[in-house]
């Protein structure tokens, strides 16, 4: 071939080869150019490319080596001499971004010159190394291979025709060279981009192998830059890895900038060689017969299997799976796609680190493209994969909407074939798409998401009742996020009657669902009340009325759950009331101001509607019992005015100064505010409200004044919530309507309370999704017993402490890096000022719920096995000891084997012995709790139940005794607080808190709550100075019954059966005793009044040990003990005069036939079940034989014959039988 022809042919081939890798680019060839031609070429290319990357390929085979300064050689016009071109000129013409390929000997000198140039420039202003990539054929001291085994331009061949180069090089080293004709390699059939042909398959495998090597060897950011940002750069670098492998075999080292670690010996090349061999072995038959069927290589199937093996044994702490880039390549093929997606889903489920790895490989565009497929079997796994991606990285929402991906998820959510939990994932994905993303909200409104969500909330079709709540929860959250700060969506939601659809969800058994429904209702309340800002005309009046009607129904619904058992729900109600308060600030301020007026006559009158509030679910005979009562003294008396009573929602007992208005809504008695609101209001007091200032653009119309009263009442209830976090939210809501001084502070050193002037801190950050929150039912596995024990150990409640952090007041910002889902404070709140906005409490249910999806959803938790093993051990221990207790013959418990000074100034109020460890917990009147180990005689922990102790602790109970037990502390004001880790010094955490008693009788100054817990049923029974017994389900965190006590007097003692779930007995102030069974429709089984001689209140009551359902021991303050068989006899079958008056405590052993009673007259007496005296304890067994203090509490160990006794002095003792040694 003539030299000129050869030159043109080389140029044309090179251009064609590059076109194969990037067909959209424009290529220009300069054959044997001059300096001017190169300059013109560079300038033209840069001008055309603008800010795109320019490729400069230098083929220096007909000119000398580059100079030591890194100049390359060109020609003069007449081709009579070589002209050097410095790289600085080249760089200044081509600028960045650029990529240079230098195929000549000593190419390394050019790279070195570039490096020096850029080092020198880096100090100046022209830092053109910003984005310049260099590929050179060899090091500065090396010459290109001269062997006939390689073409002269071996580097260019590797970069532009990698498959042929790789096969030819492999051929010479393989056993096939004896049986296969070398020339066939140039005739490989097929097209590179058709994976169903031999050439396409080889190209596909080569891409997968080189990608895998690069991903496993390179730092992730470099991999992203070289292999994922630009098609041509990625192709060149893949082929560069091959060039390194081939040329190193000829003692030549290609180099690059950025520099890559050596990859020529990576073991994935062996997989390539094997695939190449399998494909080459088919080559002769395919060339011979063009119609012959091509057999695909098993390469991808094998690599997927390797990935599957890794999934079975790998973890975050092991080396990442090197097959990840191959899994990505497999997604391109229909035949392997489903398996690859399932394995990818399993991998992503391992945790956020796995999602991070997958995103670094470049999974995103692949799974985005797959949303355009309609294959039904891929739908579920794709929704799962997107759930996992969005749980980690919310920013993907933009691309999803841009590509119309949201419609895929709306269709999936609307389809009834999928399981509810999978549809919940689709709802989650949509919630993330619209979260704080206006374009996403608009797209989803357009696609009809509002109606899809409301349709499924209105009539959910239960496929599987277990997972249904998750779907309802996410439908609410998705809708809430769609409506958040989006006026158009709010109007559509109200038109579709969303409030009426949400309201019933506030009664659902799952706290998460109730909280989500409250959140969704809150988003329908318009902050600032300026929906009509687009020019309100007369025609908008009717809409305005409708909007107000909607607001009334929303607020009424929310007020019904202001005393919900779950802090999570109450938090959402507080946030909703804050939104409402912003919109109706003036009217609420006026109402609040009239409450706070010091004149005594206006106090009662300004509570117009409270007389008609009924407590939810309870049947009160006459509503007038609920007239708010306050002992109001004329304010002239001075600073000792006593206001209100000690109810949770009433001001704490303290000093109210005359100079300032009352610090709290002292005259308001909380009761669950039901929808049954009265329409009567005392217009006399509230008339002046309407005229108060205007707000924003449109003035919200005053709603019914009674409703405003309810709201202020509810806000005060929240401000005194037993949970510190909710109380803080409540105080912030009150500050919106201008009430700053809310909390109460200690008056005396022991810590009772009075008014406190602390304005709420506006910086309460939202709670991060703590790891301990959404362990929905980890470990909720009730065990079946092999032998029926007398008192079977019970299932766990509040399992896994799914809401542990709902009360931890932690300054964790919502958009903290670990929470994945950034959450702007409030989006755009129109015209709210910055300071007001900082006070605005934030909803936490959405961020918290998102945490569920970043946890593993496919695998069960590893620790369930340990839990089961420990549970079985404890059951075994319990059964053995129950048998021992039943057959014990107790003579006397004289052996005091442990005692210590509690340091309680007022003595011990109540105590508890742990069943499976030698630990005792005791509490005093100031709600100070102390935990001791009575074997090692040391104090384990001591803490305050809360900051404003009132009248002491009424009862301590153990929740989930077979597992990591929780300590339930019931205060005398009816507040329940549940603690975990209470035995670890300073580590105790408040799990949940709520007020168990709501609404009380007029004139009652103290609630004297009486509480008991029943593990089998998960019920908490609570009563006191109220006319009903509240029945709470702790798993649902919900009040499920309010049983009328049908008695004029209040409950003074209560005991839940440890054997028969749902059974409990109550003793009353008038000496009567009643047996209840919540499983029966009428609840009350029978009633009797055994204590008739001296009518004094029942102090202690308990069930007999054993399985008999109606046998009860009751003790009255007068000192008589009655043995009752409630189901068979009206009267007591046995009476003992245990003490002459002042009986203070009664304890009946759970399993042993022994009863203990204590007296204020410094004596403990023991009896058998037949009433025979077993002995008494009067003295401490010391040398001085000092008398014991007046007994204040007694409790038995559940499975051993041990008696703990507390007295009004600081001494606490544990007694055992003479022949029993405590273990």
TrEMBL record:
The keyword Protein biosynthesis does not apply. One of its GO terms (biological process) is maintenance of shoot apical meristem identity. Keywords: Repeat, WD repeat. SMART domains: Raptor_N, WD40. GO terms for molecular function: protein-macromolecule adaptor activity. It holds the Pfam family Raptor_N. Residues 1-115 form the Raptor N-terminal CASPase-like domain. GO terms for cellular component: cytoplasm; TORC1 complex. Belongs to the WD repeat RAPTOR family. This is Raptor N-terminal CASPase-like domain-containing protein. It comes from Salix viminalis. The lineage of its organism: Eukaryota, Viridiplantae, Streptophyta, Embryophyta, Tracheophyta.
């Amino acid at each position: 071939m003539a030299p000129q022809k050869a030159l043109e042919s080389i140029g044309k081939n090179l251009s064609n080869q590059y076109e194969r890798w990037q067909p959209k680019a424009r290529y220009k060839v300069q054959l044997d150019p001059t300096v001017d031609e190169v300059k013109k070429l560079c300038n033209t290319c840069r001008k055309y490319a603008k800010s795109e990357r320019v490729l400069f390929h230098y083929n220096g085979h007909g000119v000398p080596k580059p100079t030591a300064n890194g100049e390359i050689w060109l020609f003069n016009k007449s081709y009579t001499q070589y002209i050097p071109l410095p790289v600085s000129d080249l760089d200044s013409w081509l600028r960045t971004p650029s990529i240079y390929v230098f195929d000549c000997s000593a190419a390394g000198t050019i790279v070195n010159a570039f490096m020096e140039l850029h080092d020198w420039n880096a100090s100046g202003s022209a830092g053109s190394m910003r984005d310049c990539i260099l590929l050179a054929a060899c090091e500065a001291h090396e010459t290109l291979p001269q062997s006939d085994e390689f073409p002269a331009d071996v580097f260019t061949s590797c970069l532009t025709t990698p498959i042929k180069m790789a096969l030819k090089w492999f051929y010479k080293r393989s056993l096939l060279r004896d049986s296969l004709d070398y020339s066939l390699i140039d005739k490989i059939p097929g097209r590179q981009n058709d994976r169903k042909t031999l050439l396409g398959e080889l190209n596909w495998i080569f891409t997968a192998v080189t990608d895998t090597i690069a991903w496993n060897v390179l730092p992730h950011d470099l991999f992203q830059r070289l292999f994922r940002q630009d098609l041509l750069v990625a192709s060149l670098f893949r082929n560069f890895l091959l060039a390194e492998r081939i040329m190193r075999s000829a003692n030549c080292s290609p180099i690059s900038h950025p520099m890559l670690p050596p990859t020529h010996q990576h073991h994935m090349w062996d997989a390539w060689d094997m695939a190449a061999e399998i494909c080459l072995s088919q080559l002769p038959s395919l060339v011979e017969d063009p119609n012959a069927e091509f057999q695909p290589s098993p390469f991808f199937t094998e690599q997927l299997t390797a990935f599957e093996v890794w999934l079975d044994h790998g973890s975050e702490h092991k080396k990442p799976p090197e097959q990840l880039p191959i899994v990505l390549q497999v997604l391109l093929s229909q035949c392997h796609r489903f398996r690859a997606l399932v394995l990818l889903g399993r991998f992503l489920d391992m945790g956020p680190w796995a999602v991070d790895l997958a995103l670094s490989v470049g999974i995103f565009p692949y799974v985005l493209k797959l949303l355009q497929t309609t294959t039904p079997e891929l739908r579920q796994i794709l929704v799962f994969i997107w759930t996992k991606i969005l749980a980690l990285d919310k920013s993907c929402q933009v691309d999803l909407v841009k590509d119309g991906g949201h419609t895929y998820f709306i269709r999936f959510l609307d389809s009834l074939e999928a399981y509810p939990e999978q549809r919940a994932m689709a709802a989650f994905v949509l919630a993330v798409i619209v979260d704080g993303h206006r374009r996403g909200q608009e797209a989803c409104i357009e696609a009809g998401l509002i109606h899809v969500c409301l349709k499924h909330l209105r009539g959910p079709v239960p496929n599987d009742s277990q997972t249904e709540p998750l779907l309802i929860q996410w439908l609410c959250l998705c809708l809430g996020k769609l409506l958040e700060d989006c006026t158009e969506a709010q109007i559509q939601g109200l038109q579709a009657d969303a409030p009426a659809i949400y309201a019933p969800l506030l009664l659902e058994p799952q706290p998460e669902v109730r909280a989500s429904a409250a959140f969704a209702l809150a988003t329908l309340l318009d902050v600032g009340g300026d929906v009509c800002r687009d020019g309100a005309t007369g025609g908008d009046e009717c809409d305005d009325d409708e909007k107000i009607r909607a607001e009334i129904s929303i607020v009424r619904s929310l007020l019904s759950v202001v005393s919900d058992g779950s802090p999570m729900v109450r938090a959402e109600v507080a946030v909703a009331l804050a939104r409402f308060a912003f919109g109706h600030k003036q009217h609420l301020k006026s109402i609040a101001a009239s409450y706070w007026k010091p004149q005594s006559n206006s106090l009662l009158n300004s509570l117009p509607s409270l007389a008609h509030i009924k407590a939810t679910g309870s049947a009160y005979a006459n509503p007038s019992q609920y007239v708010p009562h306050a002992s109001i003294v004329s304010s002239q008396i001075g600073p000792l005015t006593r206001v209100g009573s000690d109810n949770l929602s009433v001001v704490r007992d303290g000093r109210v100064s005359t100079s300032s208005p009352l610090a709290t809504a002292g005259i308001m008695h909380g009761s669950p505010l039901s929808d049954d609101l009265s329409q009567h209001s005392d217009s006399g007091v509230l008339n002046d409200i309407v005229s108060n200032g205007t707000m924003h653009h449109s003035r919200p119309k005053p709603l019914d004044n009674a409703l405003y009263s309810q709201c202020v009442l509810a806000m005060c209830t929240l401000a005194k919530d037993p949970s510190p976090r909710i109380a803080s939210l409540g105080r912030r809501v009150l500050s919106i309507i201008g009430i700053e001084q809310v909390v109460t502070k200690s008056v005396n050193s022991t810590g009772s309370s009075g008014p406190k002037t602390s304005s709420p801190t506006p910086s309460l950050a939202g709670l991060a999704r703590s790891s301990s929150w959404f362990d929905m039912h980890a470990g909720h596995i009730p065990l079946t017993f092999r032998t029926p024990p007398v008192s079977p150990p019970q299932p766990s409640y509040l399992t896994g402490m799914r809401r542990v952090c709902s009360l931890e007041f932690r300054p964790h910002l919502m958009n903290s890096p670990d929470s994945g889902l950034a959450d702007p404070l409030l989006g755009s709140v129109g015209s709210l000022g910055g300071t007001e906005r900082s006070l605005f409490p934030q909803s936490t249910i959405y961020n918290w719920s998102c945490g569920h999806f970043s946890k593993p959803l496919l695998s069960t938790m590893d620790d369930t096995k340990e839990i089961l093993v420990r549970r079985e051990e404890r059951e075994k221990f319990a059964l053995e000891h129950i048998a021992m207790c039943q057959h014990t013959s107790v003579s006397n418990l004289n052996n005091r084997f442990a005692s210590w000074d509690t340091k309680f100034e007022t003595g011990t109020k109540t105590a508890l012995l742990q069943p499976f460890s030698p630990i005792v917990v005791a509490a005093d009147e100031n709600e100070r709790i102390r935990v001791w180990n009575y074997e090692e005689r040391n104090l384990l922990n001591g803490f305050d139940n809360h900051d404003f102790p009132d009248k002491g602790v009424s009862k301590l109970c153990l929740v989930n005794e077979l597992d990591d037990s929780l300590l339930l502390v019931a205060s005398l004001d009816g507040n329940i607080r549940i603690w975990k880790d209470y035995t670890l010094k300073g580590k105790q955490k408040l799990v949940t808190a709520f007020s168990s008693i709501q609404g009380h009788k007029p004139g009652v100054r103290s609630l004297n709550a009486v509480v008991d817990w029943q593990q089998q049923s998960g019920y908490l029974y609570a009563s006191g100075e109220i006319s009903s017994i509240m029945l709470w389900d702790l798993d649902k965190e919900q009040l499920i019954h309010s049983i009328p006590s049908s008695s004029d007097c209040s409950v003074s003692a209560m005991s839940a059966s440890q054997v028969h779930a749902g059974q409990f007995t109550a003793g009353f102030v008038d000496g009567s005793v009643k047996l209840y069974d919540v499983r029966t429709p009428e609840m009350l089984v029978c009633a009797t009044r055994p204590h008739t001689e001296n009518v004094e209140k029942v102090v202690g009551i308990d069930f007999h040990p054993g399985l008999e359902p109606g046998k009860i021991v009751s003790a009255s303050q007068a000192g008589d003990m009655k043995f009752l068989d409630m189901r068979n006899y009206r009267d007591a079958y046995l009476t003992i005069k245990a003490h002459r008056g002042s009986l203070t405590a009664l304890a009946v052993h759970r399993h042993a036939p022994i009863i203990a009673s204590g007296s204020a007259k410094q004596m403990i007496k023991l009896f058998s079940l037949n009433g025979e005296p077993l002995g008494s304890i009067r003295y401490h067994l010391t040398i001085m034989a000092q008398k014991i203090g007046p007994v204040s509490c007694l409790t038995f160990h559940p499975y051993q014959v041990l008696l703990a006794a507390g007295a009004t002095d600081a001494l606490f003792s544990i007694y055992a039988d003479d022949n029993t040694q405590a273990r």
